[in-house]
């Protein structure tokens, strides 16, 4: 891409070649209306809104009207946006679009952040001339996430282009013709795609709106915004949390060039409901005579001081708690008594993932870089369920071949319809090797269903095929040998190969095999990338901190060495079997649980302390690609609720200072102090302090405002409590003012963008103004910081990598037992999102997935550690013999896998009689 | 000396001027119909609440003394609460101007004095009247596209019945 210059209305603007004129105009700061173009979807020229006049040279005075989005930038292009004829053209287009648009804005959820409203004002259309009748449509019930109001449609086709072409959905499409076109499903029903929530942001008007948000609706200008990070998987998508009247209202996408860019998965968008759920803990609870009663904070702290005086305190952290919370607990109890809150198996898998990512000689691609991988091998991880947004990126990687074909045919890559037509013939470079079918199978070149051990063996065989120095796999089936050769050939031929694996199936061999393949590839292709999926939002951060696994805590408890357990944001019943939990509770005198949600473990605790959820405090999370990212406070909860590290600090203040591992703990004033102390204790985590500017950051001498400049109701919103005006809440941990006073602008640091608005752009499309280049970097720089980096070591040349040699033995089906593998569900397996009402509505009842041949009755009994479970049976096509799929965490709460279990057949009703 | 006499004369002259003092409250002042006094929420001709909780009055208010929360029943939007802090209100009428449904109206009533400031915080039940106010005929939902009880989809003013997607006709 080379720099060039175009002349817009007599003004010379530097721009890039290879983009279209609409993009160039927007990047040059001009306000040119458009609808159907979207940076992630490209151009199709459907809406005819971005008409401009293009002149063929300095001498051409007549020019011609062209669609800016369909015209490539060329050297010395001369265009006019203000040309009277082009203006008239655009005004007539919008007038035609508004002909059927209903008089709904006051009762439309999009009102105030509507791209159609912005564009209508921009073109100057303000009075309806059309006096005839308007077309109307019946709506459909599209499920718990998205609300449908077809009357408002302007037929830009963005929804189906996103849903079908980009996200691979097939249940939303377009019906009828001309004025009557209808975007919906063939019949009422829930949208099945995992990214349906993005329609809310993709739709330029109010056809698709956020249903859970509508129930607690507030206008965009009334809500406080805070940059946040999704806590529902380890990918670390950036979000904006919107809150009003101290309740979280919705979660929106926040653009991060390297991570989620324009899109979020439905679990991330709608999973935030746990914050306002009835399961929230809002006061400290103390067990008095077997009853949990709400107690004042001071009482709870003195109770803890008494407990701690009796003996040793051990801390159990959590992969879903912020880095600061984990570190403060570490500072309280010391490294010998600090547990990561994971079982040994999880602990070792995460440590292995960290070690492999850290040491393997290949690249560490960001999620955006994965989209441009030209050969992808998915090795035993259903990324569409464990890291959905990553799955969407892999789906885009399949398009690389069509881009190369388009480049050869001199078709610009943003020319969407043409490139997709060319791409229909292009081969896919995606190989999916998993035990069960995944959503990516449809776009894969080849898929293989096998047991995790067999997949790992195949992985090692591929590594050996690429680099003969890698250990060979013996006794491989002839078909697998051929498949390994084909995959190896594709990966070697690729310029930017990628191997994706993870710990979904709890098989370290899979991750070892993936790393071996990348190491083998990296000898010739340093761009070869490795991505490993982790289970929780801060799994990687905790792996970098280290600690002991839960089994060690169990041993210490059995030996009677533990008097008090302090557990932060961890529900041990999801990790330990009921018998183990009961044993632990019996062996330990007191359990203190610091959590935001009433988990089953809370009932066993002597003290429960209410902690702030992600929307109510600031903190740092480390994503699976080792990116430390800061989330900020959007809600200011009433007094006893506070950040985890503040609770730990409050507990520490009641103790004898000699008992504290780190004496400085009681002196921390704000988040920056915690991060500074952490940088000293854990040098590897030191860069996390730079994930976002500190609390002392000022722009033009001011804090940044977290409310909009026109937030309403300042003098009345709390007047039913007290008619006197209250000062805005203080926010010591963030450079935000928590009121409408403060700086805000497109140039503010990307990590501190609390919402997108740049007059006259009030919708989410205002993002264009915050970007340096559309679809490129933010004007305010990067958001977050990579803790695993390649730059330092790369200069020293390729690092030696010792191939793993522990190749597993092949899987053989047993006659009397089956191997139970987790069926990770997008909705249902994740802990926090299952407290969100809309996600609960989407979760389907657990069923046992069986190989097609084994599903001989409708129900079967699965004998797990915690007893027998009667489950309906569902045949899973392709599932290898001897393997059954059980929904993770939905049948047995603590479900460790892989697990050998006994399966018992229940005869059907008819057979019994 | 002369100045003193002149002052006395001018003062005495006022005894013969027309009285400006109004004997309020015995003698009520004339208030024109468009006088901007106490704010009310009106109902549409069917008797349903006109306010659709669009929040435009709140955002137009220069002193930020209006606050409300949207809720929904049968497709109609309502304010769950609607609160005006009259101790802050400057009776500028911008809320009335902003209202797309003629729900919020200013009335010729200024007799709102209270001893306790908190009594000047009016909730929805204090604001809602049972009539249509200044605009007797207007009903927002008869113009808007969304269906409500008593008005099917496509039955608003200047609307066609919904498109039959199963029809093969162009």
TrEMBL record, chain B:
Keywords associated with the record:
4Fe-4S, Cell membrane, Iron, Iron-sulfur, Membrane, Metal-binding, NAD, Oxidoreductase, Quinone, Repeat, Translocase, Ubiquinone
Cofactor: record remark: Binds 2 [4Fe-4S] clusters per subunit.
Supply the source organism for this entry.
Answer: Komagataeibacter europaeus (Gluconacetobacter europaeus)
- Origin superkingdom: Bacteria
Q: What is its EC number?
A: 7.1.1.-
Provide the cofactor list for this protein. Answer: [4Fe-4S] cluster
- Annotated [4Fe-4S] cluster 2 binding lies at 61, 89, 92, 95
Q: Which gene encodes it?
A: nuoI1
Indicate the principal place this protein occupies in or around the cell.
membrane
Work out whether the entry's keyword set contains Metal-binding: yes
Q: How does it assemble?
A: NDH-1 is composed of 14 different subunits. Subunits NuoA, H, J, K, L, M, N constitute the membrane sector of the complex. NDH-1 is composed of 13 different subunits. Subunits NuoA, H, J, K, L, M, N constitute the membrane sector of the complex.
What reaction gets catalysed by this protein?
Answer: a quinone + NADH + 5 H(+)(in) = a quinol + NAD(+) + 4 H(+)(out)
Full protein name: NADH-quinone oxidoreductase subunit I
Free-text function comment from the UniProt entry: NDH-1 shuttles electrons from NADH, via FMN and iron-sulfur (Fe-S) centers, to quinones in the respiratory chain. The immediate electron acceptor for the enzyme in this species is believed to be ubiquinone. Couples the redox reaction to proton translocation (for every two electrons transferred, four hydrogen ions are translocated across the cytoplasmic membrane), and thus conserves the redox energy in a proton gradient.
Where along the chain is composition biased (Basic and acidic residues)? 154-163
Q: What is the similarity comment for this entry?
A: Belongs to the complex I 23 kDa subunit family.
Where does the record place it? Cell inner membrane; Cell membrane
Q: Which GO terms describe its biological process?
A: aerobic respiration
Q: Which residues bind [4Fe-4S] cluster 1?
A: 51, 54, 57, 99
* SUPFAM superfamilies named among the record's database cross-references: 4Fe-4S ferredoxins
